[in-house]
Amino acid sequence: MAAPLVYVTGFVGTLLRVLLFATDFPAWIRSRRELVTPITSWDRVQEGIALQKQRISPYAGDLFHETPLLLRLVRSADCIPGGSMTLFVFVDIVAGIILYKITQEFTRYELQRQAKEMANYSPQSKELLHTRKTLSSISIAVTLIHFLGPYSLCACLAQTTTVFSNLAVLFCWLFTLQGNVELCCFALAVATYQSLYPVIFLVPIAMHFFQQIEPKSPHFVSKAAFRSYTRVLLVFTVWLASLLGASFVLEGSWEFLRATYGFVLTVPDLSPNVGIFWYFFTEMFEHFRTFFICVFQINVFIFAVPLAIKLQEHPLLQLYIIMFEVCIFKSYPSYADTALALILLPLWQHIFRYMRNTLVVSTLYVVVGILAPILWHLWIYAASANANFYFAITLVFCSAQVFLIADVLYAFLRYEFDLLHGTDHRLPSKEKTRVVLE
Amino acid sequence: MGLLTDTKQRQRLVSVLSRHHQKLSVLLYVVGLVWFLALAYEPLNASTYFSENALLPGLVDSNLPSEFFSLHQYAEALKAEMQKDKKRVPKDWIFRQFQNLGLETYRHNFTIKYPFKMAISQDLVGENIFAILRARRAASTEALVMATPLRAASTTKTQTDGGIAVMLGLAEQFRKNPYWAKDVIFLLSEFDEVGVHAWLDAYHETRSQYVIPDELPGRSGAIQAAINLEIPRDKIQYVNIKIEGLNGQLPNLDLFNLAVRLCRREQVLVTFHHRSDHYEADSWDSFQHSLVTMLHMMWSQASGAPSGGHGLFHRYHIEALTLEGVRFKKGFKNHPLEKIARVTEGIFRSLNNLLERFHQSFFFYLLPATDRYVSIGLYMPPFGLMVAAAAIKISFSLLHSKLFCMNSNEGKKCEKISGETTEGQHQSPGEETDGTQDVSLNEDSDDEFEVRKMTGLLTVTPMILVSFLLGLMAYTAPYILTRFTPSMKMKPDDTILFGILAVFSAALSYPYLMSRKAAPEDQLTVDWRLLQCVGLFMQGLVLMALSVMNISLAFFLAASSIPVTGFIKGTNQRVLRVLQLFALLVISPLGLLIIASLVNASLEKNFSGKLVDLVAGGYEHMKEMIFLLLVDQYLFSSWTYTIICFAILPTWLVFWAVPFNSP
Q: Which PANTHER family match (chain A) (predicted)?
């Protein structure tokens, strides 16, 4: 247990947030396109609250795109002065606690799995095996990144509502690891309700639960498997339906569906962000729009299929990769989504030694972090640069993320190979050789 | 992916590169530098052209009378008024003249709070005069500005009474004509740039801390372009065009072309940085001539200070430049004021044709002559090469640093990024059979991948933090120091100079402070290679970020610092250490400032060529430069001082610690 360090990190992180909220840094960061999207913008949420106070449906115009339940939650917090800031700091603290629990559960899960599969491993791969010691550093790394990492820090300070869906996803991870189908599906339903895309997490989660039921060589395409999948799907549907139903009752109309999910799917707002949609669709002729919207949205979901086939033994990695990939290709991504993906990266620290692009990727992240505001300034304020400059930097950001996630996948496959065949690769002629993944 | 996946090929490439990386680095730097400078050579740059066809330069017939009597009357009357009191500007007279012309004429008051309290205890009060000529064919949605600073007859700068006469004469002619589609605002600003700044702030209803404008009594639409006139009354030898704005921003190249084209049409000799074009194209002489012109421009742009009243318009996305009439000393061909009026009329008639804001043509360019330009696409590759020289150093330094070599027993490994340029092609380390690659390859101070074995990066973190803290100190020092000076009875510029020197020398000693703690135990000694890599990485980021904002500053910085920063190393030899420290001192922010002031002193017109004069002039220039840096920062929110404190100084301090470490 590396608890003291975790507590210290948590405390410092919380203090930092509270202190920074007192400066005018949040006001600046709240206008950053890289962090704030039309859906998650705090300014828009406040507009929504104001409209609701005037007894006007916030969804009537084209301004507010958050979900009805979140609006009510934030509104009640906003009644007290400083309440909203407290809420955001509180959410981050809860997320920190959940993260800590996730790492504990993950440690348990990995050790269990390792014990079970030890028989298949090569005797020469001892140095690759998990031990309690190697796993214990995960929790420190995760909390460190969560509390002091710039992305999650800025997401909290900018008060993007993404942190709520991020929290739901974290809960989903926790309950998945604990094997609690009902709560996991509830968390997933909340995440889906908030930002729609997490619906695709159903695939790895259903596979995970089936794997839990039948630990001995599960057959993923079988009657038993489908029974298990159906159960998860059913529980999830019930939860989601009740959330939507509650929203309908509160709102009194289905108007919010168009303003939230319709907004996510049809991408009408093309103001710049770190994603790939906005530039492409501003350049697009109108009559191709529908077609390419479909292509881009399918692109987000389609990766679940090959991953489900390739990584069927490892639903958690599958879940992680899908999560990362959604945060790259979703219609309104921001740093807040990246924050979630990076926080959980240390879970795979055992494969880091096989990663090849870490230096490039981390450089690119830093470069984007510095250049994006500058290019934005040059484009919007100085007007000497243009949209292409900013788009270039968002492309760099996307490439960095794609590099990273491809690297994680590669490193994992490579790690598995070494687990099964040992780290000392030799040809039949006893000559040393190296393994290449083609 | 052939190269990336074929490990043998890759290994060979890596080992070749790693053996020769020092040479390669030198080669890249030299090629980059030579290529950059060679861009002034005519075949390597392009000739200017009009991208915005709506300007139709010079296609309209001039409506000015062939004998422009009223202009001369205004000039004479103004001369008489100005002679009455040489220290004052006849503002009331000018105000009345505009009013008599039937224009909406207003006074605009503003207050300057002096940022350094002690020099002038009371706030300065200034007054701008401006007059709006309403366009007959539009609803005041767009406007053009003709500006000129109000300077008394006794001024040491260029006199501007000719400009005022031109304004009055043109205002009289303009209002007779029906074709104006944009309002024309005639702005006469007091205290040069400060008045312009106050007026623009009031016009756009923005606020700044030290210049406080009153509310504007009258206003027009969005300002499309501005021409600033600094024209003396008579004996104009040539017109010099000034373009460099605040923070190195430049006006659209089309506006510059327009001014040049119209001067040429009226047979007015036009120069850029007081240098006319070389008559002979494509020769060694002409290359030298253009190179010097280009360097003059870059020198002026690199300072980040506006070179005239036009410089502040750029902040509000208004294209602007200054036409400066230069008087000759002895007999020469004389351009009468009338010609300047015709040029200005032509420019405004062209601007009147604009259908949309300037958006075509270039905003990022360098000018080796009035009719040649070097665009961003041309100057970025050589600049990229220069930065790549440092990037190569990073990749192979990391190879040798302890971070990587910790437990490797065979096979070289490297992570190479070939670029602070955004597309980092990479050479990946390959699938090592022994799998000894270190976990913590992360280079940045971000904690994205902070996992374990952080020994490497953790050791240099305090150095980086301290250098940023020192940067913060240097940033706040002038403000704090000047609070104390009244009791010390020193002039503000002296206080600031000495204060900054003190902060700087304190900063110099920080490696000692760090090393004393580190000395007894072996584990805290810093791996200088890693430290250098971090420094080079920061330097690359700084240069890259600067290159898109102010290429000239980035270029001078890269050209001066990369040869030193790339090749310093930790050493035990005393001589070598001292030599390295000296080289580092030369490229330190203060060292560069001293060099810059010496260059400025030698560029002065009445420079005698004696060393004593150079040093004395250099000292004065340095004092003035630092002072102006701060004044620009406080009054106009220029970034140069901020960049020095938070980017250039911390980076340099990281390098400063390198030679103190033993290998």
A: GPI TRANSAMIDASE COMPONENT PIG-U, PHOSPHATIDYLINOSITOL GLYCAN ANCHOR BIOSYNTHESIS CLASS U PROTEIN
With 50 as the cut, is the pLDDT of residue B417 above it?
A: no
Amino acid at B432: E
> Is domain B53-370 classified as CATH 3.40.630.10?
yes
**Amino acid letter, B420:** E
CB pair distance less than 8 Å for A434 and B5:
no
Q: Is B437 on the interface with A (CB under 8 A)?
A: yes
A426 in a domain, yes or no?
no
Whether A99 shows a pLDDT value over 60: the answer reads yes
Q: For residue A340, what is the nearest residue in chain B, using CA coordinates? A: B448
The answer to pTM > 0.80 is: yes
The alpha-carbon gap from B9 to the nearest alpha carbon of chain A, in Å, equals: 13
Helix (H, G, I), strand (E, B) or coil at A249: helix
Does A44 map to a domain? yes
Contact A16/B at CB under 8 A: no
Residues from chain B contacting residue A358 (CB–CB below 8 Å): 415, 441-442, 449
Weakest mean pLDDT among B152-156, B301-305, B595-599: B152-156
pLDDT exceeding 90 applies to what percent of chain B? 24
Task: Give A128→chain B minimum CA distance, Å.
Answer: 10
Q: Which residues of B touch A437 (CB under 8 A)?
A: 5, 431
What are the beta bridge partners of residue B189? B149
Calculate mean pLDDT across residues A132-142.
82
DSSP β-ladder status, B142-149 and B183-189: parallel
Q: Which residue has the tokens 């911390």?
A: B650
Q: Do the bridges between strand B372-375 and strand B365-369 make them parallel or antiparallel, or are there none, so unpaired?
A: antiparallel
Q: What is the domain count for chain A?
A: 1
Q: Which residues contact B198 (CB under 8 A, 6 or more apart)?
A: B108, B110, B112, B126, B128, B189, B211, B212, B213
User: What are B188's strand-pairing partners?
Assistant: B129, B148
Contacts of B362 (CB under 8 A, 6+ apart): B51, B252, B253, B373, B375, B376
Measured between CA atoms, the residue of chain A closest to residue B548 is A375
Q: Does the residue A431 lie in any domain? A: no
pLDDT at B607 over 80: no
Closest CA–CA distance from residue A131 to any residue of chain B (Å): 14
Chain B residue nearest residue A140, CA to CA: B451
For an interface test with B, which of A146, A367, A398, A437 has the most B Cβ atoms less than 10 Å from its Cβ? A367
Read off the pLDDT of each residue in B378-404 and give the average, rounded to a whole number: 79
Q: Is A213 on the interface with B (CB under 8 A)?
A: no
What mean pLDDT value characterizes chain B?
80
Mutation for testing the A interface, residue in B317, B428, B451, B550 having most A CBs under 10 Å: B451
- Secondary structure letter of residue B275 according to DSSP: B
Q: Is A372 on the interface with B (CB under 8 A)?
A: no
Contact B548 A374 (CB under 8 A): yes
Residue A196 domain-assigned?
A: yes
Average pLDDT over residues A271-281: 90
Distance CA B183, CA B107 (A): 18
**Bridge partners, B185 (sequence order):** B132, B145
Do B432 and A367 count as a contact with CB atoms less than 8 A apart? Answer: no
Tell whether B348 is within 8 A of chain A (Cβ). Answer: no
Residue of chain A with shortest Cα separation from B438: A353
Q: State both tokens at B486.
A: 């009244």
Q: CA A398 to CA A405: how far, in whole Å?
A: 11
Give residue-wise pLDDT tens across range B428-472.
Answer: 333 333 333 333 333 333 333 333 333 566 677 878 888 898 899
| pLDDT tens, position by position, B240-282 | 999 999 888 999 999 999 999 998 888 888 999 988 888 877 7
Q: Which residue of A has its CA nearest to B449?
A: A346
Which of B282, B356, B292 shows the shortest CA–CA distance to B319? B356
Min Cα–Cα distance to chain A from B557, Å: 18
The residue with greater pLDDT, A41 or B402, is: A41
